[in-house]
Structures are given as structure tokens and as C-alpha cells.
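Quarterly update, task 2.4: NAP-bound model.
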Amino acid sequence: MSWTPAQIPNLSGKTALITGANSGIGYQAAVELARHGAHVILAVRDVHKGHDALQKLLREAAVGHVGQGLTRPTAEIALLDLASLASIRNFALGFNARRLPLDILINNAGVMALPTRQLTEDGFERQFGTNHLGHFTLTGYMVPQLLGAEEPRVVTVSSLAHRNGKIDFDNLQSERSYTPWKAYQNSKLANLLFAFELHRRARAQGSKLISIACHPGISRTQIVTNGPGSDLKTSILFGPLKFLTSPDTEGAEPTVYAAADPNAHSGEFIGPDGFLEFRGHPKVVRARKKACDPEVAQKLWAVSEQLTGLTFRRLAPLPTDTSS
Ligand SMILES: NC(=O)c1ccc[n+]([C@@H]2O[C@H](COP(=O)([O-])OP(=O)(O)OC[C@H]3O[C@@H](n4cnc5c(N)ncnc54)[C@H](OP(=O)(O)O)[C@@H]3O)[C@@H](O)[C@H]2O)c1
């Protein structure tokens, strides 16, 4: 039988931080986690959109709410622009000061196929900068809070688009040539390389942190309007072939499963179980071989540290020195 969100365990006492949580996959994942008792932090770049999403979530997550000892869902918004290293740092400073253990981090926010090459505040190509570098930096800053939780999870949302991606270290940010879809595909491949490398590093260091990647298939969210608008490729996929795509509630299922199901394991890639993984219920899916290449992943990690100035802390305390 297919997995459904009804199988999510009680998440009371857990805190989940979700980027890009005011719409689409991020919003729907936030609703399910809040409905099952997690305290959810909606990380948003637009405070007005954030407030609207928060009000809606508190109403929607109250329906079927199962939080133990809680009568209502609890959630808050936090300002976080992934296209600004300063914004990520400010958010992290405030969050770290609360010393709140972070059980679930969902790296979800994204922009897709922007028609022209745009830059982030720090001069990074916007898709690579937001989708990959922003989440890389955020995760790095969140390590202490994640390690404060009993069973910390990092979920990184990638895409089927990773299959056509390429990490070209000589054109990492499309400096030489910019193609909207290629830049998106590359950023989604970077998401997967990061998620799998985080998994490998956590295991090698004996960390309790787990890292799971997922993709929603093709889901009807704001991502087309916010990105390519109505170009031919998207018009076909989201128009005549609409039946192949999912509503955002269904598109969020792989994310929710990766974030909350006890049967999801570190290093897995979760996607929809339907035709060509376009839609359906969560299952373990296969990433392309290039997404699992440790050499490329390590180089990308090092380059990401250089670009962002963020050095990842260890993911577990050093083993105690027994020599003395
Ligand atoms: N929908 C699909 O078919 C599909 C397929 C494969 C993968 N995905 C992935 O799923 C994830 C969620 O996308 P979605 O489909 O739910 O699209 P969406 O409805 O457009 O949601 C994207 C979210 O990301 C936020 N965001 C964009 N730039 C940001 C920034 N600089 N800082 C903080 N937040 C930012 C957006 O905020 P604003 O509202 O302020 O713009 C929005 O909340 C993305 O990683 C996407 O690549 C989606």
C-alpha cells in the first residue's frame, strides 16, 4: 500500500525549519509537519507573504491535528533570503542565540530557469546561489543546533532536472554562457551532490545527523510563474500534460516522508512512485551516477566553502583522546 501523510509519527517536541515555506512544496510540507505536532519555522524572504502563509497554516494544520498534549499547531515565521549571505548570517545569529535544538532542516526554497542571468546580493548566479550556495551556507550555520537534537535530519529538495545537470567548474555560475534551464539543472545536481556528501561526511565522522535528498516530481506550484513564465517547454508540461503533474499537496509527500518517516534512511533519494517519477507517493528512487560522484562532491564542497566563506564544523565531537 502507498505511503500517506497519515503514517507520519507524532512529532511533538520537534522543531522543523523549512526554507521557502510560504508557497508550494515548502508550504504543504510545513502544514503536514505542524499537523503532526512539530513546531514549524517558516523561513521566508518576504515578511508579508510569510504572515499570510502562517495564518493559513495555523488554520489548515488544525484540521486533523495530532500533536500530543497540544490542542493547536504551533508555527512562526523567520526572515531569510537565501540570495544574501548577510541575510543567512543574520538569521543564523538570531537562531543560534535561542539555543533551540533543530530536529529537521528542509532545504526547499528554489528558483527555476530564470529567463536572464541574474545575480544574488553577493554576485553569484541566482539559481546556483539560491538553490545550492544558500542552502549550503544555511546548513553549515545550523550544525550546532542540529547536533543539539536527538535525531537531526537535513532534507534537501532536488529535482528530476538533476539528470541533465553538469558541474562544470570552469563555468560553475554560467559566467561564460547562460542557459536558463541548464543553470537550473546544474543547481539541482549540486543539491544532490551536497546531500550525498553531507551523508558521507556525517557517517565518516560518526555523527547522528542524517541527510536525505528528495524530489517532488512535477508539481503545480508557483515555480513556473516565478521563473520561466510561459515558455514552450513549461506550457506543454503544465498545460496539455497537466494530468501527469501533481497538486502541491502530493508533490510535498516525498519531502514530508524524508523529513519525518522513521523508515527513511540517510543517503537515500526519495521521489514519487508514479509514471517516470512525475507524480505519486514516496519511494526510494535512483539518482544519476554523476550525482553520487564523491570526487566531484568534495570539490564542489571546497569551492562552496571558498565562495561563501563558510567553513563547515565537524558533524560530531572528536573522539576523546585516550592517550593521556
Ligand atoms: N514544482 C515542481 O515541479 C518542482 C520539481 C522539481 C523540484 N522542485 C523543487 O521544489 C522546491 C520548491 O519549489 P516549488 O515548486 O514549491 O516552487 P514555489 O511555489 O515557487 O516555491 C519556491 C519557494 O522558494 C522561495 N524562494 C525563492 N527564492 C528565495 C530566496 N532567495 N530566499 C528565500 N526563499 C526563496 C519562494 O519565495 P517567494 O514566494 O518569496 O518567491 C517560495 O516560497 C524547489 O527547490 C524546486 O526546485 C519543484
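Highlight for this quarter: The chain is about 40% helix and 15% strand.
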